[in-house]
Structures are given as structure tokens and as C-alpha cells.
TrEMBL record, chain B:
Belongs to the complex I subunit 4L family. It catalyses: a quinone + NADH + 5 H(+)(in) = a quinol + NAD(+) + 4 H(+)(out). This is NADH-quinone oxidoreductase subunit K. It comes from Chitinophaga chungangae. It holds the Pfam family Oxidored_q2. The gene is nuoK. The chain crosses the membrane at residues 6-22, 29-53, 65-89. GO terms for molecular function: oxidoreductase activity.
Amino acid sequence: MIHLVWLVPFLPLLGFLINGLGRRYLSKPLTGIVGSGSVVAAFVISLLIFFEVRTPGFTPQVVTLFDFISVGSLHIPFAFQVDQLSALFLLIITGVGSLIHIYSTSYMHDEPNEGFARYFAYLNLFVFSMLILVLGANYVMMFIGWEGVGLCSYLLIGFWFKNIEYNKAANKAFIMNRIGDFGFLLGIFLLIQQFGSVTFSEVLPQVASLGENSGVLFAIAMLLFIGAMGKSAQIPLYTWLPDAMAGPTPVSALIHAATMVTAGIYMVARSNVMYSLAPHIQTIVTLVGLVTALLAASIALKQNDIKKVLAYSTVSQLGYMFIALGVGAYTAAVFHVMTHAFFKALLFLGSGSVIHAMGGEQDIRKMGGLKKWMPITHFTFLIGCLAIAGIPGLSGFFSKDEILAHAFGYSPVIYGLALIGALMTAFYMFRLYYITFTGKFRGTHEQEHHLHESPAAITFPLIVLAILSVIGGYVGMPAVFGVPNLLAEYLSPIFAPSAPFLHEHHLSHSLEWGLMGLSTGLVIVMILWARSKFANYTDNGQPTTGFAKVLENKWYVDELYDAIIVKPLMSLSKFFQDVVERSGIDALVNGVGAAVKWGGGRARLLQNGQVGFYIFAMVIGMIVLFVISLFL
Amino acid sequence: MPVQYYIFLSIALFCIGIMGVLMRRNAIIIFMCIELMLNAVNLLLVAFSKMWVDAGRIDAASAQLFVFFVMVVAAAEVSVGLAIIVMMYRNTHSVDINILSRLKN
């Protein structure tokens, strides 16, 4: 089956071509079947591949399609690498992707046929690019997928392109991504210069030979990490993600929760030996992740748009994944990617269901008491909130606590700060839950009449994701529970090369139980505090003041970027337009034309029609010719 | 007779011819001056031919033959030119070349 791995990205590509080229001719049911069916089929094949990869003693296999770049001694084939890491990501991408495609057939139902087909075409193209990213056997293939998902993110955020604000958000996402991509590209160049190759199986074993204090390795790791900062929305390149909520909600679920933003994590996990060996990079990654997690969580405390809260939550959770990568807990990071994909997609799809029922309203101050009208959405959303908060028994608890435990082993201070972030997570998520689903309904009467539970195509994915959010954690149980950590065993061949360079801190079992109990207890306190504050929420309409105002305005980071970067660039651009373009280039080009015109005007005078003058000119010409022939 | 006399005469005739071509207004006079130039060249050719033959190179006699070529060309050119002047006179009733500036602008 593995030799058919090329089918996995190819089927969504086919879906993209059919829906994209036939968007004027296809009916909505056909479009939905083609779009969703391609991803479901890809999921089935991924499942078969996964079972093959799971057999003990499996070694990574590379399926080469064709030679992409061959220059001198540099060979970059278009090849897929099938190993434990990529097989796992395949399942996540195609699995969650299929559910979101099915959800979209109902959510996007109001679009005209052409828009509907265009949406599914873009979504399929995105799945194709993401699969290329995780399946690529070398950094260039990964970069192809990296750029592809950035492009599809732009296309899908600006899907309703007639709205200028959405277009600006799409531009912002793409441009910030490109800044990161620039770093990534420089990293690839350095890799080629240092190792002469970009293929994982050739470069990564050689990394160890560079030694512990290699400046080159630090540069490569840092540059690649800059790419990850852009793609996975870490500080300072994170402001695009909340604005990206302008796109349709399933897009937010797929791209900005479950898959594209995890590309950075995948890249670091794939290059784990580089990040374990390079000096100082671990500290940088951990700190960036930590600061991002705390900053985003603080902003989420005061947001009133249901999707913005989830967006900042995503940024925050990605920060946690980077904390895990930074302290060397690679398995924990991938584990959190998986569980986060489940519950964050669930939360986003649930919010989409709510927005749909509210007729497009996204402000939670106008919601309330929705659990009466939307039982399934309410129950699944609650499960998502419990999972992200880290209630024991649900998937989020296991992955988050594993990260926190490893952080404690690295540094108790980092653990403390990360724990504060986790408590903020629980608080703002349950603030969102209580304001939206409990209490009295605060919307208008027409909205109230419109409230209904969503159709099956929407609730079915919600239910599936809720089940996964509950049981998804049991594959990665920590050792204290006495059951084997299936995920760690599965991924051990991927992360084994890092092991000699990591300083493993083993926590005693009692300490681990203590940490788990501490976090669980504090989380429950947070939830109860949120309930006491928000369960019967009424919007008193007063403007927020003081520190809360800073949080509500996102720490004014967007305004800061606007002043430091956007305005100088715009004035530089204006300068170029007014001065350089007008007085410089235009003057030059127009001047050439004017010179030709002047010369022509002068030359015209030779043609005065007087025969005598013509004869004179002939004589002059003859004399000149004679003189020239004398000298030649 | 030293050959320089012939050369000076030829140059003088040629320069007079050029002056006439450039300065005269009457088209027929201009033609006469062109003929003058051609004949000056003929004179030069014959003079040099005799000079070289006397010096021992008998193949220089072909220069005298070239004079006939020049005369034939002059005749052909005059016939065409006079035809043009006749047409010109029929159209404008003048042979003044300053009148013929219709190519202007």
C-alpha cells in the first residue's frame, strides 16, 4: 500500500481540478460529493498506510516520483517519505479534513453554485498542499507544501472577496507568512551550503557530526524556526491569525486550528535532532512559545467575538506546543497537535453551528442560553471546553499535563508560567461557554425565532470530534498510570536521534501525581470562578477601562506594527511613486522620446524641397566619403 | 607639354562646374555645368593616359577608352535630365529650381 502513497495527495488534487474547472457547471450535491469524497478516500488510504507503518520493526520508506531538481551535485527528488510521523499527520489531516468537508456541505449551502464549487476547490487544494508538506522527503518538498498552504489560506480567508476588510485580512496573513517563508528559504540555502543536500535521510544523520557548539547549526535552526513563527503564529508574526477569522468558519477550523498552523510543529519535530543539538535554540523556542501562550491567553480573556476567542486560544495552544518542542518533549508536542486538532476543530465547528443558528451573529454578548435550542451543539462544545481546559479523562488533560511535566523537569519557573497560561485557558474557555450557552438570551426577537439545532451534516462531525476529544488521549498515557504510552512507542524511531543530546529529567511518580492534582484542582477552581461570574451574564453596556481595555485591544500590537512597519513602508512607497517614478524614471523615458522628437525636428529641416540645397548636400556627402576613404 | 598644365586646367574646369551647379538657378545652366565637370574628368583621364604611356606602361591606353564610357553615360544622363526639365517647364512654365520646392513639408 505504501507505494500507492502518492494517491493520498493526488485525490484531493483531482478534486481541486474537477471542482475548480467545472465550477460553473457542477451542481451543489455533485460538488460536495467530489470535494468530500476525495478527502475521505485519501483518509481510507492513509488508514491502510498507518496500519502498515504500525507493524513493529518498520523502517521509513521513501517513494520517489520523479527527479525535481538536479544541478551539479545537488539532487532534489520529488519524493514522499512514509514513516511514523508522516503517517500520523496523514491521519490527522485527512481525518479531520473529511469531517470538515462534510460539515462544509451544509454550512456553505447558501452560497451560489459557483462560489460553492470554488470553496471546495480551494479546500481540496489546501489538503493537497498540506499532504505534500508532511509527506515530503526533503526540505524543498516541505517548502512547496508550506507555500501552498499559505496560498490556500489567503484564498480561503478572502473567500468572500467582495468585502474589502476580508481582503485586507487575507493579505495580512499571506504577507506575514511570506516573512516567515523568507527565513525558511534562507535556512534551506544554508542547509544546501553546509550539507550539499536537503533530503531528510541524508541531512539529519549528518547533523550530529557538527558538534555541540556549531554556529551554522544555530543559524539553520533559527532560520527554519522563523518560518515556523510565521506559519504557526508565534510572536512576533501572530497577528494574522485572529484577523483570519474573516474566512468561513470551517476554514478557520481546518486551516487555523487543525492543520496549517501545525506545520511549524511538524517541521521542528522532523528536524528534532537539529533542535536538540544547536546551542541556545531550545531556550529561544521555549521562551517564544511561553510568551506567545501567555500573551494570547491574556487577550482571549477579554474578546467578545466567539471566533476571536478561539483564534487567540489557538495561538496560545500553539505556544504550548512550542514550549514542548523547546524543552525536548517532542512526543508531547505531537500529542498535543493531535488532541488540539480534535478539540479545537470541534470548538470551531461548534461555533460555526452557533453562528449559523444566530443568522451570522458572532458577538457573544448577543447570545446566551443557547443550550435550550441547540442541545447537540451545546453538549459537544462543552466537551471541547472540558478537553481544552484539561479535565482528567479527556484528551487535552493527557497532552497538556505531559507538556507541563516536561516543562517542570526543564525549569520549575517555566512550569509555573505555563500553568498560569493553562489556568487562563480554562477561564476564558468557560467564560465563552457560559456567556454563550447559559443564562438568558440577549439577542433580538427575530434571532430568537431563528434559533434551531443544525442539520445532520453539521452535528455529525461535531459528535465524531467530541468522541475523539474524549478518547484521543488514551494513546499517550503517562507512565504513572501503569499503561504503555502507545504514542511514545510509536514515535520513538523518529525522535531517537535526539535522545543522546537531551537532558532527560525524570520526575518521581509522586511528583507527577502531585503536579497533575495541582493543575486539575486549580483548573476546576477556574471553571467554578468563571461560572460564578458569567453563568447569568448581562451586558451592562459600559465601555471597558484600564487594564481590561488593553487586553480587549490586543495589547495594541496591531497598532504598534502599523506605526513601526506599515506606515514607514507606505511612505517609502509613496516617495518612490512621487519622486523616483515621476521625476526619475518617467523623466528618463519621456526624455528619450523628447530627444528623438527634437532630433527629428532638426533632421526635417534637411528636407526643404529646394533642389539647390539637395545638390549641395550631395556634394558635401561626396567630399565626406572621399575623406573617409582616404583614411580607411 | 608638362602634365601639370592639363591637371590645373582640369581642376579649374571641375571647380567652375561645381560652383555653377551649386550657385545657378536655371536648371539648364546647371546641366551645362554638370557636363563641364564630366568633360574636366575626361580631360584628366586622357592627360594621365598619355603620361603613363610615355613613361612605358602601354596598358594605360585603356584610360582613353574609359573616356568613351564617360561620354556615353553623360549622353544618357543628359537625355533623361532634359526630359525631366521639359516636363518641369510644362507644369510650372519656368526652369527656376527655386520654384520647384513642392517637396517642402
